[in-house]
Amino acid sequence: MGSRGTRTRNALAATAVAVALAVAGAGCAGDGDAGTETASGGGRTTGSPESPDGSAPRQDEGSVEVAETVAESLPSPWGLVDLPDDGLLVGSRDQATISHVDEESGEVTELTTVQGVVTGGEGGLLGLALHDGGLYAYVTTAEDNRVVRMAYDAGGPSLGEPEEVFTGIPGSRVRHNGGRIAFGPDGMLYLATGDTGDQPQLAQDPDSLAGKILRVTPDGDIPEDNPDPGSAVYSLGHRNVQGLAWDDQDRLWASEFGERAWDELNLIEPGGNYGWPEHEGSGGADQGYIDPAAQWPTDEASPSGLAWNSGALWMASLRGERLWRVPVAEDASVGEPRAFLEGEYGRLRTVLTVDEGGLLLVTNETDGRGDPQPADDRVLRLRVS
Question: For residue 70, which of 342, 345, 258 has the smallest C-alpha distance?
């Protein structure tokens, strides 16, 4: 991890700071969210596999400017929503609270504590998504992981009582609960689930909801055009997906924690099998698995949130403490990944597009695995290209 002594701490900064750091090379790896496994990552260079036609990856540097600190002193932030009527909603994984952030003043107002949430390990109040007047939340309970919905009233603002939308996702009190949720261009709700940590074989079981990307209607029903019309499973063979994003061609991408060698960025195909636990990283195509579009040694990534902006995917990294930019071409080929903000703000959990060239970035030093400093954690506003 980057030295705490070198981190820049901006508090509602008026002066923008531009940072552009390229990172390459393999090294020691581990599960950055759990921080318990360590092994060699091999000798491959950080970046994407070679292009299908054998050409070298495109060089496309991009830029990141930290415009301001929108909010600070947030406890274990995880999910984030940009509200249409101005302001933000941010969830605390470990306190199971949802708060409103006034973007002008930075004032944080707690709205509710979500009842029935069991916190601990990597479980608790995880992803958030707003749709048709309802705030959806992926939560860990005593029985499972599930999605609940609360009516959102902008006039308060206030939130109603949670109602069940989709239940029965295997959970863990330790790690690998997944947790990211997002509504796709098709209006369907997509859920990223983990393999529960101690049962990796569930990722290959088509009858299990663990280690999958799921697709359901806003009411939690199974769409008839799913790969299996009777199943919520959209793709399988995942270890712990925590990032979902669609590019400008409406293609779904996912960021995924590796184990001992490679973290992955995957282009998701309906019904596709991404190999876990039988295979990690590239080289599984001969076995019928889909290879990642890009991969990193786990100490350089341990990815969580993912967003699309300005012709590239932006991936927040926990153990890697950096924001990765991955340019994507019209044919879905990816260019050379480039790292920004390395070691400047610590662990990075969530990245969210607010407009073309505009991102919100959530730090995650207060989740029990970081090195929190005064005013951690925070939401940063970025300008990117």
Answer: 345
